[in-house]
Automatic annotation (TrEMBL):
GO BP field: bile acid metabolic process
Coiled coil spans: none
Family indicated by similarity: Belongs to the short-chain dehydrogenases/reductases (SDR) family.
Database matches in PANTHER family: 3-OXOACYL-(ACYL-CARRIER-PROTEIN) REDUCTASE, 3-OXOACYL-[ACYL-CARRIER-PROTEIN] REDUCTASE FABG
Sorted UniProt keywords: Oxidoreductase
Record-given protein name: 3-oxoacyl-[acyl-carrier-protein] reductase FabG
Organism: Oceanobacillus oncorhynchi
Highest classification ranks of the organism: Bacteria, Bacillati, Bacillota, Bacilli, Bacillales
Length: 250
């Protein structure tokens, strides 16, 4: 079964660094033209584009705040104009800060801020790309979740709650869009050190991972590619842990 994405257009949100950068590279290496979305850091987004182009891939950096309806509309319009096509693969990956807060200190606003990234943004983006996907009777929506939903990580209910909500919409949208051959799935990374984790000690986490190592961003890129490609044709509404088995005991 082919992992070839020649002729496809993929949009990866939050692709200026971290997992999004490597998801973008993996999809571009497979032949997709990738829209590298970013919010603030043009230079980092351009680094992702250069990283992709250095191996002969195709990518375009486009700014857009995924929490803002007008900004999302502009982002999709610009992506469609520049690629002269519509989005075939949407990867909802962007995240803002994920503050650790005890119940006593939590405010309702802390929950809303996480929902903006993991529920509102996927909704705005999915609504914007659906006309093109429905017309083609084909599409891929891949939500990047987290193992924290299974772990029930304490003092992080703001983040855990929003990722759990993302799982609910993944399953409901998969049912709703199945008849258009649009698949909707969720990938749940374990702790995958990226730029923002540079100073963190990973030894304790690593000691609990059955596969005995930390994940690398490429592990998530590979899983996204599998679901985005024809190999994932008959998979929808699923939640896939990519964490070396870290949640096996749950
Ligand atoms: N890394 C992990 O260990 C891990 C584990 C489990 C789940 N995850 C999930 O994986 C995803 C990626 O995480 P990460 O660690 O790679 O994050 P990251 O390194 O912090 O990168 C976040 C990205 O989101 C972008 N962004 C921020 N606000 C935005 C907005 N309003 N609109 C559009 N883009 C925005 C940033 O762009 P700018 O640079 O332009 O601000 C950046 O490209 C998230 O959904 C996260 O919850 C990560």
């Amino acid at each position: 079964m082919s992992h070839n994405l020649n002729g496809k257009v993929a949009l990866v949100t939050g692709a200026s660094r971290g997992l999004g950068k490597h998801i973008s590279k993996t999809l571009a290496d497979a032949g997709a033209t990738v829209i590298v979305n970013y919010a603030n850091n043009y230079k980092n987004a351009q680094d992702t584009v250069d990283f992709i182009e250095s191996d002969g891939g195709k990518a375009i950096a486009i700014q857009g705040d995924v929490r803002d309806e007008e900004s999302v509309k502009k982002l999709i319009k610009q992506a469609e104009d520049e690629t002269q096509g519509s989005i075939d693969i949407l990867v909802n990956n962007a995240t803002g800060p994920q503050p650790v807060i005890s119940i006593e200190k939590l405010a309702w606003q802390d929950y809303l801020e996480q929902l903006e990234f993991f529920v509102k943004a996927p909704l705005l983006l999915t609504k914007a790309v659906l006309p093109g996907m429905k017309e083609k009777k084909n599409g891929r929506i891949i939500n990047i979740g987290s193992e924290v939903v299974q772990l029930g990580t304490p003092n992080h209910s703001n983040y855990v709650m929003a990722k759990a909500a993302q799982l609910g919409l993944t399953r409901s949208w998969a049912n709703e869009l199945g008849s258009f051959s649009i698949t909707v799935n969720m990938i749940n990374p374990g702790f995958i050190p990226v730029e923002r984790h540079e100073a963190e000690d990973t030894s304790e986490y690593r000691s609990g991972v059955p596969l005995g190592r930390m994940g690398v961003p490429q592990d998530i890129g590979n899983a996204v590619l599998f679901l985005a490609s024809d190999a994932g044709n008959f998979i929808t509404g699923q939640s896939l842990s990519v964490n070396g088995g870290n949640t096996l005991g749950i």
